[in-house]
Amino acid sequence: MDRRTALKAGGICLAGVVTNVTAQGFPNRAITLIAPSVPGGSTDAVCRALADAASRRLGVPVVVENKAGAGGTLGGLALASAKPDGYTVALLPLGVFRIALMQRTAFDPLRDIAYVAGLGGFVFGLAVRADSPHRSLADFLNDARRNPGKLTYGHSGIGSTPHLAVEELAQKAGIELTAVPYKGSNEALAALLGGHISMMSGTTEFLPHVEAGKLRVLATLGAKRAPAFPDVPTLRESGVDIVNESPFGIGVPRATDPQTIKLLHDAFRAALDEPAVLAAFARFMLPVIPMGSTEYEAFAKRTVAAERETLSRLGLLRKD
């Protein structure tokens, strides 16, 4: 085969690949990935690693846009008003499934969002300062019983998993705590380190401060002990029957074309195999929980039903 024939054959092969990837002209410009957090935390770090890996697969930049607040649900709000063209995607924490059950919102998690791919989960825990008099969860709960409403805890927003997990803990333990919402877990962490709150409910942003001897973890919320805290009991081991693991993934507006959803699914699913992405997950001890589009959609439906039951039990379900 001469040089001209070889180049021609190569061009045909390349054209075939391009036609397959851009069958409907997607993507041909930058994609926005909404990170429901402030810059610098675990969610932001994972979003940036995913965006970098997915951009190489898609052939266009994937730009992270931070939208913190509202318990991490602003991504869902953005999807409800975005064009269903695949150029706006969002990382969706579990709070997206419950916020519309707690208050009136401009989006419905099942009506307005299509679920592209499940990616991972969070490890939640309860932390206090190292100089706190609370050496264990039992110490904290006993103090709360003696002093109703005196102890405060910070969380990443009303309706977030860190918020509702502690509200459920308070209900089951028969205590009264004062919740202090922040725009993100990093703000709650700063408040805890500064001594402005008694406890923080959050993910593993506090890990470096535990290792530095500044914070102490009283309990974790998973079904099993967190690998980074092998000596810290779970809530269930501490006598409170609560397990709270929080899968997250990628969503787009509901009317997005199925072929576009498939291309996005394949790109973000492939990103989970990238060393840099796995390193970001490992840095914050986030488990990889891959789900295909159909599986993630089914998970969303089950979760909305389960959240409705939990919120009803806690007295937080919308009345209208």
Compact description:
By secondary structure, this protein is α/β, with parallel strands linked by helices.
Element string (H = helix, E = strand): HEHEHEHEEHEHEHEHEEHHEH
> What is the spatial order of strands in the main beta sheet?
2-1-3-10-4-11
CATH topology assignment of the largest domain: D-Maltodextrin-Binding Protein, domain 2
Tell me the number of structural domains: 2
Q: In terms of structural class, how would the helical and strand content be classed?
A: alpha/beta
Helix content: 40-55%
Q: Which stretches of 5+ consecutive residues score pLDDT under 50?
A: 1-23
Mean pLDDT: 88
Biggest sheet record: 6 strands, mixed
| Shape, per Cα inertia axes | globular
- The level-1 CATH class of the largest domain: Alpha Beta
Q: What distance lies between the first and last C-alpha atoms, to the nearest angstrom? A: 74 Å
Number of helices: 11
Could you state the CATH homologous superfamily of the largest domain? Bordetella uptake gene, domain 1
What is the CATH architecture term of the largest domain? Answer: 3-Layer(aba) Sandwich
Count of beta strands: 11
Radius of gyration: 22 Å
Beta-strand fraction estimate:
15-25%
List keywords for this structure.
single chain; disordered N terminus; five-stranded mixed beta sheet; 320 residues; D-Maltodextrin-Binding Protein, domain 2; alpha/beta; 11 helices; six-stranded mixed beta sheet
